[in-house]
Amino acid sequence: MNADSVHVAGFILAGGKSTRMGKDKAFVALDGRTLLARALEVARSVTPEVHIVGDSVKFGQFAPAVEDLFRDCGPLGGIHAALRASQAELNLILAVDIPFVSLALLQYLITRAEQSPSAMVTAARANGGWQPLCAVYRREFADLAENALRGGRYKIDALFDASRTLAIGEEQLAAAGFSATMFRNLNTQEELEAARCKDVS
Q1: Does pLDDT of 24 surpass 80?
Q2: 21 or 42: whose pLDDT is higher?
Q3: Cβ atoms within 10 A of the Cβ of 163, count?
Q4: Whole-prediction pTM value?
Q5: Domain that residue 178 falls in
Q6: Per the structure, how many domains does the chain have?
Q7: Which of 26, 119, 9 is nearest to 64 (CA)?
């Protein structure tokens, strides 16, 4: 596969320790489907080139797996591994524990990234901060990530250069028909139970 054959690649970050959930979040069920199955379905609606960033033994049966090059460094390590493995210029990064994102939202983020060739990152600012785990990254972000990882710096949005980051605010999201609640993630059993009891649009 040459570098131009895949315009957008998708990567599901599933390598977290899930300590607050008490079990592997990827295999927790919501509305009859695991969080991993939900993430794979929505990502594959955007692009056929979808990988899981995590243990290849655990996840290889579900999709091609990519393992972190920098171990135990959190989501930034996963993003770095994804971008180093990618042959696509635009890369959708989606954490497995953000189950409420829609196909339309992902398409919107990708379209905004396509329209902003100078943006290394296209990400929403919602719910009081950046949403770096449902965002679009260009491959060159891997260089920034690697420098940070080598220096022991693991905060993703600390690498968002104002001049090269397309920030999409809540007003823009709302104007496009999206609620900030789509970025809600599930970290604990309590959050999972609340999600099971309440329809989040």
Answers
A1: no
A2: 42
A3: 7
A4: 0.90
A5: 8-197
A6: 1
A7: 9
- C-beta of residue 54 within 8 angstroms of C-beta of residue 72: no
* Residue with tokens 């690697």, as numbered in its chain: 146
DSSP H helical ranges for the chain = 35-44, 56-59, 75-85, 103-114, 141-150, 170-175, 189-197
**Phi and psi for 19 in degrees, rounded to 5?**
-65, -40
Q: Judge whether 145 and 160 are in contact, CB under 8 Å.
A: no
pLDDT, tens only, 102-127: 999 999 999 999 999 999 999 999 98
What are the percentages of helix, strand and coil residues in the chain, rounded to 5?
35, 20, 40
> Are 44 and 92 within 8 A, CB to CB?
no
Residue 109 · residue 92 · CB < 8 Å:
yes
- Joined together, the tokens standing for residue 57 give 């033994």
Locus of tokens 């690649």: 9
CATH number of domain containing 83: 3.90.550.10
- Any residues with CB less than 8 A from the CB of 150 and at least 6 apart, and which? 70
